[in-house]
Structures are given as C-alpha cells and as structure tokens.
C-alpha cells in the first residue's frame, strides 16, 4: 500500500454547506448516544464530494468536531481507506488497476498512455482535467485491463480505445461506461461456449431431467399400447381369414370304395340314382345360384356384428366394443395437400404419438384449427380410417383437445393433457 499523507498545500478552512450540515446532523442523530463516531465514514465522504473529491486537513478536523472525535481518530480513518483522496485530483480521476490479471492483459500499456498524456501519478494536468493513480485490484479482473474514472469502471482496455476514451472525456463528449470492446458485461468474448442448451435457463423445462424421464416413460407406454393394439388387430384379421382346413368327409357315409370308378367297375351307373335326385332338387342343390345380400339392404339391427378391440387406458382398456356403422365419404372433413405455413405439433394432442401424427399428416391433417372445426361425423370418418388406431379420435376427444390447442393453450407436457372423462 502506498504511503498516504496529507497534501502539502492545504486550504485554511473547511465548512459544510448548510444543506450538507443539515444532512450530517440528521445522520448523526440516527446513532445511539455515545456512538456518533459511527458516522465518520459517511461524513468524510460527503466532505470529499463537497471539496472537489479530496479531503483537506480542515475537513478532517470539522468531521472530528461534529462527531466529538479526536482529530487523530478521523485522520486514521481517512488515511486508511483509499477511497478518500488526501490531495487534489483532476476532474477525471483515473485509478488504474496494476494487479497481476490486469498486468497480464496489458495494464502496462495503459500506464504508458497515462504517463504520456497526463504525466506522473498524483499530478493534476495544468487544465485540471486529469490525474491518475495506480491501485490494487478493483474486482473487475474478468474485464482486464481496466480503470476506474471517478465512480465508473472502464474495462477491456487497449491503448487505442483508452486513448479515444481520454479524447472524448477531454472534449466533453459522452462516453460508454463498462467494457470498451463490445462486450455487454463479462461474458465470453468469443461467444457462449458452455450452458448453450436453452432449456437449461429459459424456463421451458422445469425440473428438466425428471420431466424428461417422465416424458420418455410416457412415450414408451403409448408406443407399447399402440403396438399391442396393432398386434391385436392383426390377430383379429388373421382369425377372420379362412384357413385351409382338413379335407372333409363328403362321402355321405358311403364307403371309400363307392366311387364313380368303383361303381363302373361293378357294372353300376357312375352316379347313384339317389345322388342324381338330390342334385336336381333346388332345396338341396349346392350349385343353384342365390341372390347376394347387400349390407345396405339389411336393416342395421339384422346386420352381422363384428367386434373391434379398442386400445385404451384405464377402465375399459382393451374391452371389445361393437363397431359403429360405417360413415360415408360425404362426412369426410376438409383435408390439405400440405401444411399451410408451419404445421402444428399434433403430438401435443393426448394419445397422438409419432406414428399417429405421421398418419394424420399423410391423411391431410396438419393443424389444430383443422380438427377444431370438425363435427362429430367428420371425427368418426377420420376415426374409421385410422387403421390399427381406430377408436382413438373419438375416445380421446380430439375435437375438444384441438379447440383448446388452436386457441393458444399449451399443455405442461409435450405429450398433451389427458382429456377429462
Ligand atoms: S486485477 Fe485488475 S481488476 Fe482485478
């Protein structure tokens, strides 16, 4: 620490202005009786501000008098704390950090600029504008080298930008406080190199890791459900497909030997007379044509009923439900050949996973607003065309979900919010 002495040339007296005196008395009154000395630092600081940013001996004595302190006690405080200037300083008082980090980053070049333009330390320029002093670390090492001018920091200095700074101050032009190299504060000069994942700090993922695990688990569960439903549908379809069976015994109880060839060998007609009569009878003939019954001609209650396994969750999951009558194409909703602008993330609809979203896109559905406009018959038309996922659209109330999503609402989870029953 440098030796701190009172200036050789001192004013004969010092007195607080009436405003500052009033302020000092108010401040002193805040302290308990006998503890007024606690106000010594704010009073010295106010004296320095009033006296061109340096504290003369007369001000030290005045502060001691106001606080009832021995002058030597006040002098000890004023000489201990380097924020108190004990000799005149320039209008722009430069405190230049000369500690190791700033030295390593070029503080010596900044010192040379000061020496060249201002002169030796603690000397005020003839025009009264500048003086400078080398000090210890000012706590802005991330922006080394740096200086403090009056109450502000100027950082990331080079000889070029420091010379310009002095030029601007001398000319009374506005200057930029803080980093002089374009940095905003002390962020990496070459751009962010760590913590580059926005989800770590933009609030989009709260409890990031736990939530990510939950989402992955939910996706896996939905994928398993979809696979189970697909397997079940494939099994049902396979069951409906006739299998080649064992050759049936169409001999009508006749012996294996009773064949046309055996009968001819026995001198009998190739076809037995009773078999010919049976074939001629339209009631028993298997070759007579029957009119094909159309499904539309059959009343709904008399139509054959098939069953489709409805993939689902919770109560009723996997229960067989009667298949609804088919919905004709007149109820086909408006479908698009491609997204209009940015396609919506259909996976935000509860129950819609990557496969189903892809299927919907293939069908011509890209936007929440599209689904939000459907009526019940449109929904059923789409539903019946979802293949293995048939039943999802109605069960998961897609229209209701899409209306909320189209209004701008977003679920907390990327897999959507399960619609209330
Ligand atoms: S070393 Fe210069 S500010 Fe810390």
Features:
alpha/beta; Arc Repressor Mutant, subunit A; Glutaredoxin; five-stranded mixed sheet; two-stranded antiparallel sheet; 15 helices; binds FE2/S2 (inorganic) cluster
Give the topology, please:
Blueprint: H1 18-29, H2 40-50, H3 57-67, H4 71-80, E1 92-97, H5 100-104, H6 107-117, E2 130-135, E3 147-149, E4 152-155, H7 159-171, E5 178-179, H8 208-240, H9 260-265, H10 273-280, E6 307-309, E7 320-322, H11 354-363, H12 368-372, H13 376-384, H14 392-395, H15 398-406
Parallel strand pairs: 1-2, 4-5
Antiparallel strand pairs: 1-3, 3-4, 6-7
FE2/S2 (inorganic) cluster (FES) binds next to helix 5.
Question: Please, could you describe this protein's structure?
Answer:
It is a single chain. The protein is α/β, with parallel strands linked by helices and about 425 residues long. The chain is built from 15 helices and seven strands. It has helices at about 20-30, 40-50, 55-65, 70-80, 100-105, 105-115, 160-170, 210-240, 260-265, 275-280, 355-365, 370, 375-385, 390-395, 400-405; strands at about 90-95, 130-135, 145-150, 150-155, 180, 305-310, 320. It has a five-stranded mixed β-sheet with strand order 2-1-3-4-5, covered by helices on one side. It has a two-stranded antiparallel ribbon with strand order 6-7. It is rod-shaped and about 160 Å long. The two termini are about 75 Å apart.
């Amino acid at each position: 620490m440098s030796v701190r002495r009172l200036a050789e040339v001192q004013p004969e007296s010092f007195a607080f202005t009436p405003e500052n005196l009033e302020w000092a008395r108010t401040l002193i009154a805040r302290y308990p009786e006998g503890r007024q000395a606690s106000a010594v630092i704010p009073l010295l600081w106010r004296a320095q501000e009033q006296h061109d940013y340096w504290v003369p001996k007369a001000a030290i004595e005045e502060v001691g008098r106001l606080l009832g302190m021995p002058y030597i006690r006040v002098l000890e405080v004023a000489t201990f704390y380097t924020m108190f200037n004990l000799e005149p300083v320039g209008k722009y008082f430069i405190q230049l950090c000369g500690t190791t980090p700033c030295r390593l980053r070029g503080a010596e070049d900044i010192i040379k600029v000061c020496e060249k333009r201002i002169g030796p330390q603690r000397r005020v320029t003839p025009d009264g504008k500048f003086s400078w002093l080398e000090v210890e670390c000012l706590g802005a090492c991330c922006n080394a080298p740096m200086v403090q001018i009056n109450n502000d920091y100027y950082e990331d200095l080079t000889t070029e930008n420091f010379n310009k700074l002095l030029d601007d101050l001398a000319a009374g032009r506005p200057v930029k406080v803080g980093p002089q190299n374009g940095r905003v504060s002390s962020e990496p000069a070459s751009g962010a190199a760590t913590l580059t994942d926005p989800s770590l700090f933009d609030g989009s993922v709260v409890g990031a890791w736990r939530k990510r695990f939950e989402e992955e688990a939910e996706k896996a569960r939905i994928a398993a459900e979809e696979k189970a439903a697909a397997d079940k549908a494939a099994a049902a379809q396979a069951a409906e497909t006739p299998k080649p069976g064992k050759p049936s015994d169409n001999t009508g109880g006749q012996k294996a030997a009773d064949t046309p060839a055996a009968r001819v060998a026995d001198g009998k007609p190739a076809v037995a007379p009773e078999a010919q009569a049976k074939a001629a009878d339209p009631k028993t003939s298997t070759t007579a044509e029957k009119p094909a019954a159309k499904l539309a001609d059959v009343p709904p209650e008399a139509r054959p009923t098939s069953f489709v396994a409805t993939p689902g969750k919770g109560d009723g999951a996997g229960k067989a439900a009667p298949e609804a009558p088919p919905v004709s194409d007149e109820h086909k909703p408006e479908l698009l050949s491609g997204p209009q602008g940015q396609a919506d993330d259909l996976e935000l609809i509860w129950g819609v996973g990557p496969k189903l979203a892809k299927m919907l896109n293939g069908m011509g559905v890209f936007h929440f607003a599209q689904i939000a406009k459907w009526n019940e018959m449109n929904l059923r038309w789409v539903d019946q065309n979802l293949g293995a996922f048939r039943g999802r659209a109605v069960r998961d109330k897609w229209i209701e979900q899409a209306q909320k999503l189209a209004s701008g609402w977003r679920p907390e989870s990327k897999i959507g919010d399960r619609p209330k029953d």
